[in-house]
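Example S7 (structure tokens).
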């Protein structure tokens, strides 16, 4: 459910104070725990260190991000690929095909000389 329109978007006051009167290129990473803060147009160009529960991940704010929340760009869970025995076999076949392609490319270069 979205926030009421009459209240406006939630923007953390401390974040606004940190970027007020500063230039994006001169300012380093601004650390924050405010994952629920909405990205406003004033934040474009700044780099925020958004906390994901363990680390601060750097997020460079662009124009496309305006209206979204900071937490959307700092994932809290690390994806471990699906796998098991079948996935290992597929990975092995892929490596073998890459090696064969590299050998074939090397052989074709040597024959041209």
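Recovered sequence:
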């Amino acid at each position: 459910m979205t926030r009421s329109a009459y209240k406006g978007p939630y923007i953390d006051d401390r974040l606004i104070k940190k970027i007020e009167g500063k230039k994006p290129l001169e300012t380093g990473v601004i650390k924050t725990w405010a994952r629920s803060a909405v990205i406003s147009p004033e934040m474009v160009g700044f780099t925020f260190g958004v906390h994901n529960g363990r680390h601060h991940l750097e997020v460079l704010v662009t124009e496309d991000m305006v209206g979204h929340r900071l937490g959307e760009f700092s994932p809290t869970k690390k994806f471990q690929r699906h796998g098991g025995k079948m996935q290992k076999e597929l990975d092995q076949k892929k490596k073998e095909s890459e090696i064969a392609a590299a050998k074939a490319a090397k052989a074709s270069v040597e024959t041209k000389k």
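Notes on this example. The two ends are 67 Å apart (CA to CA).
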